[in-house]
Amino acid sequence: MDSTVKDKESLLARLLEAGGEPLSGQAIADEAGVSRTAVWKWIKELEEEGYRIRSVRKKGYVLEGVPDILTPELIRKELGGDEFVGRILHFDSVESTMPIAHREAQEGAADGTVIIAEEQTSGKGRLARPWTSAAGKGIWMSVILTPDIPPHKAPQFTLIAAVSVCRAIRETAGVEARIKWPNDLLAGGRKVTGILTELQADPDRVKAIIIGIGINVNQDPGDFPESLQPIATSLKIQSGQKVDRAKLAAGVLRRLGECSRLYLEKGFPPIKKMWEEDAITIGRRVKAVTVRETLTGTAVGITEEGVLELRLDDGTIRGIYSADIEL
Ligand code: BTN
């Protein structure tokens, strides 16, 4: 038993832990130091939130079904005992999880703090583009990391995030996602995930890295705005079945913890190797559209800083720091 019941949230955690076995209302009331009526009210509130709970005479309460929402309790149940994930702040609807994460980081949030929302009304993409984040259809989250590294190494965490999400998608949803440099994930040739990395730093050290992850999970084609329909996809479209968002969110966070630890222990080389294995860009002829020019060549790899190396037709190697890549 991991949690003492003291409120509705810890009662839910206990019901989840019980794995379908009945929990005695009287035992919960005694443990929490409240009346049986108070326990009954928590149960009613959980039912109103979409949990299906059966009351079995003389035995207690049995959890029979959970709603499709990303509550901290559901994510934690899927995580098991993973130590990387700290506080999980869950919102129904926010403009964007990014400013909330920045505020939390400024107030000293610990490594592994997660901000997750069912819906973003003003989701942010790279290069100040909007990011469509429909209610209950995807995973829209920002993770706060506080590694002890100099600021020039922070972009490596974008690659850590891309590898983590790519592998979690494969493991949880069975979809073969691939990374398109720098940080898009494609499935079936269309964008299924975007990653936005932002930084709080002093000149010589990182204070916090905020990794914003947007995964299109359960949209049907018509759920995307018309302009996105030819270029966006979801895991449900790719796999033909609905994906459990709490399991996937937990999978991403578990992988992110593992890859961050690997990076802090062994440095960038193992991450670079994993990234190159998962990338669709490497070895391909690509067009890199930068603010100043358009270059065509073969993508040969990435550097320690995450810079894409392009071999141009005259054989010279050019480093691409920021560009839109067309395959
Ligand atoms: C991109 O590909 O342009 C990056 C998209 C990043 C979207 C995520 S969703 C969670 C977090 N909150 C935001 O407003 N943006 C990021």
From TrEMBL:
InterPro entries noted in UniProt: aa-tRNA-synth_II/BPL/LPL (IPR045864), Bifunct_BirA (IPR030855), Biotin_CoA_COase_ligase (IPR004408), BPL_C (IPR003142), BPL_LPL_catalytic (IPR004143), HTH_11 (IPR013196), Transcriptional_repressor_C (IPR008988), WH-like_DNA-bd_sf (IPR036388)
UniProt DNA-binding region: 25-44
Record CDD domains: BPL
Keyword Electron transport: no
Highest taxon of source: Bacteria
UniProt xrefs under Gene3D superfamilies: 2.30.30.100, Bira Bifunctional Protein, Domain 2, Winged helix-like DNA-binding domain superfamily/Winged helix DNA-binding domain
Pfam annotation, one family: HTH_11
Family designation: Belongs to the biotin--protein ligase family.
Name under which the protein is recorded: Bifunctional ligase/repressor BirA
